Structure formats: structure tokens, C-alpha cells
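User: Please fill in residues for this 395-position structure.
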């Protein structure tokens, strides 16, 4: 039996993970489940999966969960806060950690899992975007195994040669073709984008996901974060990554080799496929995902993304090229801008403006220590809050 901690168990990825784990109870034992503040959902998951630990980031929520579990499942220990999250990410009885917290909140626990030498199933791309070099060093120094859950990166991982860490040239890879659906506003007239609502932005045409990543998919900041994620995971640069708009989301990404071969991974848009792949790797197991009906798909389209429509993609590539803590600053500004948009404090079109202003006014640092990353993250959040007020809707 393999023990697993699921960070962010109540979210979209967390629930898909528990669905896959529930199909293989003979192979995996859920050791810990965590959530931010959704007591009812985590309580229900605790009764079903009987972990040793349940963690709520929010202390009041932890108190309420402990009261409810006291009667129903007194053997489950309830922990609270960042310390609790870091603790369950490094438990000796959990060999695997699913990192599925959204945003910067996931950095410390995900890093704790890497430092403890776990098999880290990485959904929380923001953690890697913020701390790229530091995170990859922690993985190497502690013999952790890093497997991507992001569908594109999981696809790339499946298409890459096994020794890809040696570098593209040595293993004969020419470039990555990173696919993107283009989100709900791929064809919306540009002059209408100013008035799109949070409800329209989170209604993704192909994938069902959390609110933050859904808005990121609409702006294509998600693809920008994924370019950065791919650079760290696969030891490459933005120059060797071509973003491809592929509205059907059937090909999840491709790898081109120097001999002209292009390998692709295809499947239905259901995150249980990459989750089951990373859990079972190097074996394969059932994920619950139905067969791809290639006949009903019938056609696949590919176009070049328009950076006028998707300025966030350009900003992310620029931040990666600038290096140091620039990507952490980009990520922090984006988190604040997306939240402000969801709260109807700024227009959709103000999201890239807020981020660009923050990147322009911030000082990035080349020393990528955790302290420096968190300090620059905090400063960028404060700057972004000021920009939100400047760009705020007045009605
Ligand atoms: P979600 O909003 O559905 O779930 C987020 C989870 O994180 C919840 O369990 C929540 O309780 C927890 N959480 C939120 N804030 C927290 C905090 N401050 N402290 C501790 N826990 C906190 O998000 P999601 O869609 O499941 O995405 C999770 C991560 O996976 C994101 O980084 C996202 O980019 C990535 N991802 C998601 C998908 C997808 O299909 N949903 C695909 C690829 C990558
Ligand atoms: Mg993705």
C-alpha cells in the first residue's frame, strides 16, 4: 500500500484525485487530506477515505471540523494552518503528495514535500512559477520525483525521452508544442472584452476547473504560467516552446524531435487521465475516463495565438526571460488582479494592465531564496492592490 497526502482535497483536482484513488483502494491509502475552509466537504471526504490527518488552513474551520469529527471519527487528527499543511506534506507514511492547492498558498507545503523526498504530483503550477530554481534544486537534492499533473505537461512528459533532464540537444528534442484551448473569449470581438463578466470568464468551453485557473485560461495567463512551468520541468527556454491554439483540447501537447517526428498525447479533457498516469507511473491503471471517440472529434484545428488578444501570455514570457523573482511578481500581481475581477472591482481588460504596471514598478531580485521570493510576492501584492484601485470600476 502506498500512502498519499492530498493537498487541496476539496478542489477540482483534489476531488478528481480522490475519485481515482477510490477506484484503487487496494493500492493507495489516503494518509492526509487538506482544505482551506470548506468544512462540510472535507468532513464528508474524511468519512469516506478515513485519513490519519485532516488539515484546514483556516483555524476556525479546523476547530469546527474537529468538533464534528470528534463524534464520527475520533481517530482522525485535525491540524490547522500553514504548519499543519507543511507537516502532512512531509509525513513518513505518505510516499506520494498530490499538490493541488491553488496559488501561492501552495508554495510552502509543496516545497516541504519536495524537501522530504516525496513523489510530488504537481498540479499547483504557481508554486513552481514562483520558486522555479529553488524548487527544482530541492527536488534534485532530496531525490524527490516530480511528476506533472497539468494536462499539457503530463502530455509532454509522456512524449519526452526518459532522459530529458540532460537537455534538449543531447536527447534530440527540437521543441515543445504547448497546446491551449483559447478559453471562452477566443473569438469574442476585442471591443466587447471590456464588459465580460466573471460568470462568462469561468465558463470554460472544454474543462471544468476552479475559478482562478478558469479566469487564467480566459486571459491565457494560464498558458503563460505553463510556459514558465515547462521551462523548469523540462530544462528549456521560452524560445523552444511554441504555444498552439487548439480549440478542441484533444491533443494535450506535443514534442518535436530533430528528425522531424512529432509525438502527441491525446485524450478526453478529463484530469483523471494525468492524475492516474502520475499515480501509477511507470505503470498504467484505469482512471475512470471514457475512451476518446475519435470519430466524433472528426477534426483538429491549430492556430497561432494573437498576443493583442492575450497580452498576459506576452507578460509571462517576458517575466520568465527577465529571470530571478520576476515570475513570482507576475504570479502575485495576477492572483490579486484575478480576485479583483471576480469581485467585480476591475474590468476583465484591466487584468493585464494591473499586472504590467506591477511588473514595471517592481524590483526583481536575482537571489532566489524562499525569503526573497516571499518578500517580493508580498510587495507585488501590495503594488497590485494599489493598481486595482487606480484601474477600478467606478460604477
Ligand atoms: P480549486 O479552487 O478547485 O481548489 C483549490 C484547493 O486549494 C481547495 O481544496 C482549497 O480548499 C485549497 N485552498 C485554496 N486556498 C487555500 C489556502 N489559502 N490555503 C490552503 N488551501 C487552500 O482549484 P483547482 O482547479 O483544483 O486547481 C488547483 C491547482 O491545480 C491550481 O494550481 C491549478 O492551476 C492547477 N490545475 C488545475 C486544473 C484543473 O483542471 N482544475 C488543471 C491543471 C492545473
Ligand atoms: Mg494546463
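Assistant: Residues filled in for all 395 positions:
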Amino acid at each position: 500500500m502506498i500512502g498519499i497526502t492530498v493537498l487541496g482535497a476539496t478542489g477540482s483536482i483534489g476531488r478528481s484525485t480522490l475519485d481515482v484513488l477510490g477506484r484503487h483502494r487496494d493500492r493507495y491509502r489516503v494518509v492526509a487530506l487538506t482544505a482551506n475552509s470548506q468544512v462540510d466537504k472535507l468532513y464528508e471526504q474524511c468519512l469516506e477515505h478515513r485519513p490519519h490527518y485532516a488539515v484546514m488552513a483556516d483555524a476556525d474551520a479546523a476547530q469546527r471540523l474537529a468538533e464534528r469529527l470528534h463524534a464520527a471519527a475520533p481517530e482522525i487528527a485535525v491540524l490547522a494552518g500553514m504548519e499543519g499543511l507543511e507537516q502532512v506534506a512531509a509525513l513518513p507514511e505518505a510516499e506520494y503528495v498530490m499538490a493541488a492547492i491553488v496559488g501561492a498558498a501552495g508554495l510552502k507545503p509543496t516545497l516541504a514535500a519536495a524537501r522530504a523526498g516525496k513523489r510530488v504530483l504537481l498540479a499547483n503550477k504557481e508554486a513552481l512559477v514562483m520558486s522555479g530554481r529553488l524548487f527544482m534544486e530541492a527536488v534534485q537534492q532530496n531525490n524527490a520525483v516530480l511528476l506533472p499533473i497539468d494536462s499539457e505537461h503530463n502530455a509532454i512528459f509522456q512524449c519526452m525521452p526518459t532522459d530529458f533532464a540532460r537537455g534538449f540537444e543531447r536527447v534530440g528534442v527540437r521543441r515543445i508544442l504547448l497546446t491551449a484551448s483559447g478559453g471562452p473569449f477566443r473569438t469574442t470581438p476585442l471591443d466587447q472584452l471590456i464588459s465580460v463578466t466573471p460568470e462568462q470568464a469561468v465558463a470554460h468551453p472544454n474543462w471544468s476547473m476552479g475559478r482562478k485557473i478558469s479566469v487564467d485560461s480566459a486571459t491565457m495567463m494560464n498558458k503563460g504560467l505553463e510556459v514558465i512551468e515547462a521551462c523548469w520541468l523540462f530544462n528549456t527556454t521560452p524560445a523552444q516552446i511554441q504555444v498552439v491554439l487548439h480549440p478542441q483540447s484533444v491533443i494535450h501537447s506535443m514534442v518535436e524531435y530533430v528528425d522531424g517526428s512529432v509525438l502527441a498525447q491525446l485524450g478526453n479533457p478529463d484530469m483523471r487521465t494525468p492524475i492516474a498516469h502520475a499515480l501509477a507511473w511507470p505503470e498504467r491503471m484505469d482512471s475512470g475516463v471514457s475512451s476518446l471517440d475519435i470519430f466524433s472529434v472528426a477534426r483538429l484545428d491549430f492556430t497561432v495565438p494573437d498576443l493583442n488578444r492575450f497580452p498576459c501570455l506576452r507578460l509571462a514570457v517576458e517575466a520568465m526571460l527577465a529571470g530571478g523573482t520576476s515570475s513570482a511578481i507576475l504570479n502575485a500581481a495576477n492572483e490579486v488582479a484575478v480576485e479583483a475581477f471576480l469581485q467585480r472591482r476591475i474590468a476583465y481588460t484591466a487584468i493585464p494592465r494591473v499586472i504590467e504596471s506591477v511588473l514595471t514598478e517592481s524590483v526583481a531580485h536575482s537571489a532566489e531564496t524562499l525569503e526573497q521570493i516571499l518578500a517580493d510576492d508580498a510587495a507585488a501584492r501590495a503594488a497590485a492592490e494599489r493598481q486595482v484601485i487606480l484601474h477600478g470600476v467606478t460604477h
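For context: DSSP finds 17 helices and eleven strands in the chain.
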